[in-house]
Amino acid sequence: MKAHAAGKFLSARPAWARSLPFAVFLVLLAAENNFATLQGYLPVLAGWDGRWLYAAKTIATAGLLAALWPSYTELRSRPAGTAHWLWALATGVGIFWLWIHLTQPWATLGQAGAGFDPKDGNGRIDWALAAFRLGGAMLVVPLMEELFWRSFIMRWLKRNDFLAVDPVQVGVKALAVSSALFAVEHTLWLAGLLAGLAYGLLYIKTKNLWFPIIAHAVTNGMLGIWVLATGNWQFW
């Protein structure tokens, strides 16, 4: 009953419903990035493999998205139209290409970390870890981020009653500001900025959030496969 009541509470507050999965993801990301420090404060975590926090983060975020699914009215329209599908696929591929090439120091915020390395102690890829990382990046992150950045933030910058804002009414300012904020979320800020602009324009053009979600999933899926094939873990 309590979980059902909480779901109804959040569903009645559209900004919260689109922000909570994103917030939970960020909190668990911070825990993942500072796992060694957490182990110092919580001895019970000693000996744990912190990389599995990514799986926990993926499951928790997916669970929230599933619980709040009825409130995501913008996802009720199916992605239709051959041209729109082609635009989404081309956008996803293009952003992937930019992501692995815009790595110059001036296009980067700070130093790139070691990334997510799924290899075990023998140097072999732990495919369970890799599957959670790839699946989370392809299926959970695009849905969570597009609901937050494009459906909520971009439209809210136009008007507080964001659900009443047609994507074509968003305007240049809201597109630019939301894309800039999206860029700051990523170490590769220039690639992130261009991705935010591309996904935002795709939402404006198609008026269907599924298409930026699809484009985002294509980008993340191609990036993950490339990382696994090349060992460039810093991109994860």
Entry keywords:
mainly alpha; 236 residues; 65% helix; single chain
Mean pLDDT: 92
Shape: globular
Calculate the terminal CA-CA distance, rounded to whole Å. 38 Å
Helicity, as a percent range: 55-70%
Quaternary organisation of the protein chains: single chain
What structural class is derived from the secondary structure elements?
A: mainly alpha
Please state roughly what percent of the residues sit in beta strands, choosing from under 5%, 5-15%, 15-25%, 25-35%, 35-45% or over 45%: under 5%
- The number of E-state strands comes to 0
Question: Helix and strand string, N-terminal first?
Answer: HHHHHHHHH
Biggest sheet, in brief?
A: none
The low-confidence parts are: none
Structure overview:
Helices cover 65% and strands 0% of the residues. It is mostly helical and 236 residues long. The protein has one domain (2-235). It is globular. The termini are far apart.
List the helices and strands and how they pair.
Blueprint: H1 2-11, H2 14-33, H3 35-41, H4 53-67, H5 82-101, H6 127-156, H7 172-184, H8 189-206, H9 210-230
Sum this structure up briefly.
The longest helix is centred in the middle third of the chain and has 30 residues. The protein is mainly α.
